[in-house]
Amino acid sequence: MVTEVNEPLLAALTSLSSHSSKLLSSWRTLFKRYRLCGKYVDQLSGLCVGPQLRDLIFADPQAYREKSERQGQDLARSGVPSECVAVAVALYVESCLPYLLSGDSGKEEWTRAFARWASIYQFYLLTGYVQHGSAERQSLEERISQAERRSQDFSVQLGEAYEKERRHLAQDLHDEIGHDLIVLKLYTEVIALDLKKNDIGQLRRKLKESVALIKHALKSVRHLTFDLGPAVWSEQGFVPAVRLYARQFAKRTGIKVRLDSARMQAHLPARCETALYKVLQGALSNVVAHADAHNVKITLASGRESVAIRIEDDGRGFNVERKLGVPRKSYGLRAMRERVELLGGAIDFASRPARLRAECRGTTVEAHLPLQDAEMT
């Protein structure tokens, strides 16, 4: 399109080239009068390049177009509104008109050619905005696609984890409670026979053993209930359930546990409570299996916008980056991360291996979950 007005445009640009500094000053003065655009004056000063790029305009129109479109992309990327770009080009033309129409150099043909160039230049710039928007949309679509794939992968992993937990629960029920109930049934049948024989001595012994079996079964049920979690805090509340779980963990493992929940509010969204409880279970399981720790500190804290849990131990620590780099060895850590990130939160693993200074050893797991827009129960 520029080639149609080559000669008058070249004459106009040549005439304006000796007034570049004055044109820029005049343009800045005009542009600052527009309140919404004035703050972008420095970013848009580079647009006034008609005289400076006259050789490129005629020597390589395609290169000039590409350069102008890249300018538009850069401005869009820096957050300059497209309407400010349109205003900037229009005001630049207005700044040039006095020089084009004054004295002997005044020619309407030059002015029309210059205005034509300005409209083309404006078109190129706005095309750059469109290209930037397309690239942004494509990038967003790719991120959405990646998020969907991650969500699908996590759904599969979560399903496998749930299935694993169900099998584990079924095995525990069979091995512990089921066994106790079978033996208790046999004892009850023996007691019935002893009653028929009037064998009081055997009866007392069998009753005592039956009571011990019942106590053991109740203890097994209590342990399984603690592992399930939600069934406990639905009656007692989340913090009491965590306190009870920590107490039972300390009793079973011999590891000292300290809970700080002074900054924890009473009610949280149910999905946040579940996620935090699972993070706690995962972290404490790792402490027992790998840390060789003596002390654990659990901190619960919540604010208006987020809730956090922090589990610290004084164990031997490990190389976090190396562990996460081997999927088959970091299933627990990745499961915690996926569960937290699925709710829009973030989790951090920090560890100081034992080979470092003794007073700095240990591992910290810290998770944050947002509370905004969460369903409260």
**Can you write the helix and strand succession as a string?**
HHHHHHHHHHEHEEHHEE
Under the CATH scheme, the architecture of the largest domain is Orthogonal Bundle
Report the CATH C-level class of the largest domain: Mainly Alpha
Would you report the number of β strands? 5
Structural class label: alpha+beta
Strand order of the largest sheet: 1-2-3-5-4
Q: Which value, in Å, is the CA radius of gyration?
A: 37 Å
Strand content: 5-15%
**Remind me, CATH topology of the largest domain?**
Globin-like
Largest sheet features: 5 strands, mixed
Task: Provide the low-confidence segments as ranges.
Answer: none
How far the N terminus sits from the C terminus, by CA atoms, comes to: 65 Å
Helices, by number, come to 13
Shape: rod-shaped
Number of domains: 2
Averaging pLDDT over every residue, what do you get?
A: 80
Helix percentage range: 55-70%
